[in-house]
Amino acid sequence: MIASRALDLVRPALLALGGSLAIAASAQIQVPMQPVPMTMQSLVVLLVGAAYGWRLGAATVLLYLAEGLMGLPVFAGFRAGPAALAGPTGGFLVGFVPAAALAGWLAAQGWTRGVARSAATFLAGHAVLFACGLAWLGLMIGFDRAIAVGLLPFLPGTAVKTALGVALLSALRGMRRA
């Protein structure tokens, strides 16, 4: 009984740590662009949300953000600290939390079963992420410019990451059944 309770506490903590490390690693896979780099983070954030559920998914992203705020070099380009959240990428970083939560909630509602629903889950998560990121970036550089540099160049990558996410979720489901 005690071992079972300990496992109930340790398992989510290990999942959150592993997920935050995956997000940190995905931050370093990037196409350098200004003022916001294109990374693989949104793919991993949405996968974490869909796989972990809305609570643990959001908590995992919050852990990732806390790691960066504490000075661990987990943000894109191995950046860290409060300046990263105050800069042009801050809205996108903060937007990871509701994006992961939405992906987790949609997954719990069955929206990761099937290609079309999985794609809708990823597109909805990306929409939340872009809304947060563009709102912050727009305050910094103007909304027209934010759309031009913070959305339009990212649309092809978003399509690719959505397709990858759908394929990876399908593969994860297949592994669970095996």
Automatic annotation (TrEMBL):
<feature type="transmembrane region" description="Helical">
    <location>
        <begin position="90"/>
        <end position="108"/>
    </location>
</feature>
<feature type="transmembrane region" description="Helical">
    <location>
        <begin position="37"/>
        <end position="54"/>
    </location>
</feature>
<keyword id="KW-1133">Transmembrane helix</keyword>
<comment type="similarity">
    <text>Belongs to the BioY family.</text>
</comment>
<feature type="transmembrane region" description="Helical">
    <location>
        <begin position="147"/>
        <end position="172"/>
    </location>
</feature>
<dbReference type="GO" id="GO:0015225">
    <property type="term" value="F:biotin transmembrane transporter activity"/>
</dbReference>
<dbReference type="GO" id="GO:0005886">
    <property type="term" value="C:plasma membrane"/>
</dbReference>
<keyword id="KW-1003">Cell membrane</keyword>
<keyword id="KW-0472">Membrane</keyword>
<dbReference type="Pfam" id="PF02632">
    <property type="entry name" value="BioY"/>
</dbReference>
<keyword id="KW-0813">Transport</keyword>
<feature type="transmembrane region" description="Helical">
    <location>
        <begin position="120"/>
        <end position="141"/>
    </location>
</feature>
<dbReference type="InterPro" id="IPR003784">
    <property type="entry name" value="BioY"/>
</dbReference>
<keyword id="KW-0812">Transmembrane</keyword>
<protein>
    <recommendedName>
        <fullName>Biotin transporter</fullName>
    </recommendedName>
</protein>
